[in-house]
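step: validate -> pass
step: tokenize input -> pass
step: predict -> running
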Amino acid sequence: MDIEWLSDFLSLANTQNFSTAAKSRHITQSAFSRRIQGLEYWLGVPLIDRSTFPATLTPAGEMFRHSADEIVRAIQHARDECRAEVRSDPSAVSFVALHTLSLTFFPQWIKGPESRLGPLHTRMQGHNLHDCIQLLITGNSSFLLCYAHPRGPLLLNEDQYPSLKLATESLMPVSAAKDDGSAQFTLSRQKNAIPYLGYSPDSFLGKMVEVILAKQDDPPKFDLRYENSMAEALKTMALEGHGIAWLPESCIKRELRNQNLVIIGNDNHRISMDIRIYRAKQTAKPEAERLWYYLLEQAT
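step: predict -> pass
step: emit ->
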């Protein structure tokens, strides 16, 4: 049982609306519904009466609501006490980022600020998009690094969480290379379905692949062979010849240069995304503020 499920349930109990509750939890409605179902399965009883509108709690749900609220409050209190007991280094600048950006973008990017500000003590956590947003809005990170696209909104209030564009990134389809340098798999029309390595349905990059395929007049047929939310995991499978994958360009620069991977398809099979940095306005650490003002200067 995931502790986040309790907060999901309490949000739904308060709003009585799956869509509104999902937005407040910064996840898709389908993912939110699965998490509520997971909680019900773990408890062994239905918590939501889905035959009514707006959604109402079952008698078991009403009884569990009080317990869930107490549990969440107790855990939050314990967390606050632990943080008060063990203070983190006040000079550390904390980042949370999508796994791919923490591995492929951040190490090179941070050289720019450090060339002006001097060496920085940074702390990085790599997570999925939902967990990244939660860490930012709960004050567990000063900055969030993530991809952004008009078709993949983050549902963050810009007044509370201002952002800056740092770079652009291309998401492109690739295949392992044959001995002669040609692609092992292509996106051209063919009789058999193409072996496909896909992202988890609720991942940001998975949404971007859906946007790409929705633009195709005659999209190829795929045979889903492997699924993972991390681009690095899909890259490893692609290198071993298990199928094609859409991967961020920064993730595969070396493999393209060494001709281990080959770009397939055409420009219509690619999409450009922004790499943005978000900050929480309540951040008060001097080093985090110094970094933000540097970034503002660079953006003007």
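step: describe -> The first strand starts at residue 48 and ends at 49.
step: cleanup -> pass
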